[in-house]
């Protein structure tokens, strides 16, 4: 697999060489947390844009909520306070209800190639676009989050009954799924989760496996992890300020849109690079929980389609929820036929 460094090297011009002429522009991108695999794609984009324009178009990523709380990034876009942001749909489901389809459990997105193709198409779906238009934003690039797994402390939930009573950081449909096992879901931001572990107010946390557990130091607090529950994923992707984008000269707009693959390629390479070393670390320092096929099938039966049905019913008065879910499943079938 091509490394992150190799991707970056192939996409940077020698100093002083400008392929794209244009005015001086400075953009601010807001993201929670520190630099990590999820941010690697936008970092590569910022470098590429600067190189292509000989420094005339600068994109600066502000980490660790320097520009405001992560739950207020959409508000900041609406106020034109920032030009782009990384958002997680389950941090503010009421602001982007159609986007919460991405966190439904057991969607057929386990194959990374299928997952990528589905998300690229969903980012152009009218309901997904409409959610962002309310906030003066446009969908740009998916975070391509991996399947979630859980880490926790205390008694190991080696059976499905073991989840009863556990306080679990899990948002959206994934939280709904775990609640059907008797867990109490909590919608904490990623940075808040480490503090919750340290304070003893959460027992387990679901994160994209494996990079995010390490990025937010959850493995430092945990005693065990699941490695094959694979209950689902979410969407923590990148959106741009619509006003700022439309104010760009067309050549800068094209530069951004033509480099979405760079963002996605870099993210995927970064995730893959993390997985090998992280899994070895987890197995060395934590107890691994591996569920049987029968246990996983029982979880899917209890928390798959029933949660989908509840989601459609809960959102049918806000947008065409059944249509959004059907589109995602159709895209997944079509992508699966080609991969």
Provide an overview of this structure.
It is a single chain. The protein contains 14 helices and 11 strands. By secondary structure, the chain is α/β, with parallel strands linked by helices. The strands form 2 sheets. It has a 6-stranded mixed sheet. A 5-stranded mixed sheet has the order 2-1-3-10-4. α2 (37-52) runs antiparallel to α11 (260-285). The longest helix is centred in the C-terminal third of the chain and has 26 residues, at 260-285. The chain is globular and about 60 Å long.
Structure summarized in a few sentences:
This protein has helices spanning 4-10, 37-52, 73-78, 112-122, 126-133, 172-179, 190-199, 211-215, 242-247, 250-257, 260-285, 293-303, 305-315, 321-336; strands spanning 25-30, 57-62, 84-88, 137-141, 148-152, 167-169, 184-186, 204-208, 224-226, 236-241, 287-289.
């Amino acid at each position: 697999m091509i490394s992150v460094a190799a991707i970056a090297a192939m996409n940077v011009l020698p100093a002083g060489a400008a392929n794209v002429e244009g005015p001086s522009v400075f953009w601010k991108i807001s993201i929670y947390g520190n630099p990590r695999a999820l941010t690697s794609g936008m970092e590569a984009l910022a470098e590429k844009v600067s190189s292509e324009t000989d420094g005339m178009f600068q994109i600066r990523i502000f980490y660790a909520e320097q520009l405001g709380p992560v739950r207020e990034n959409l508000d900041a876009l609406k106020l034109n306070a920032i030009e782009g942001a990384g958002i997680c749909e389950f941090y503010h489901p009421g602001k982007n209800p159609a986007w919460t389809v991405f966190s439904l459990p057991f969607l057929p997105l386990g194959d990374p190639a299928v997952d990528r193709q589905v998300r690229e198409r969903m980012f152009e779906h009218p309901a997904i676009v409409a959610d962002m238009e309310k906030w003066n934003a446009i969908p740009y690039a998916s975070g391509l989050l991996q399947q979630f797994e859980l880490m926790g402390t205390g008694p190991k939930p080696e059976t499905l009954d073991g989840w009863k009573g556990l306080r679990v950081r899990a948002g959206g449909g994934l939280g709904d799924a775990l609640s059907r096992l008797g867990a109490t879901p909590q919608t904490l931001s990623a940075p808040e989760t480490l503090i919750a572990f340290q304070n003893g107010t959460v027992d387990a946390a679901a994160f994209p496996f494996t990079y995010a557990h390490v990025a937010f130091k959850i493995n430092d607090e945990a005693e065990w992890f699941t490695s094959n529950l694979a209950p689902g994923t979410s969407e923590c992707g990148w959106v741009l300020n619509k006003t700022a984008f439309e104010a760009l000269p067309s050549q800068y707009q094209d530069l951004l849109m033509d480099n979405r693959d760079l963002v996605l390629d870099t993210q995927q390479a970064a995730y893959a690079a993390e997985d090998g070393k992280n899994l070895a670390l987890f197995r060395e320092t934590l107890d691994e929980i591996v569920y049987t096929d029968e246990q996983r099938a029982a979880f899917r039966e209890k928390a798959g389609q029933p949660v989908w049905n509840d989601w459609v019913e809960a959102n049918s008065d806000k947008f065409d929820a059944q249509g959004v879910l059907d589109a995602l499943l159709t895209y997944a079938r079509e992508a699966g036929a080609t991969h």
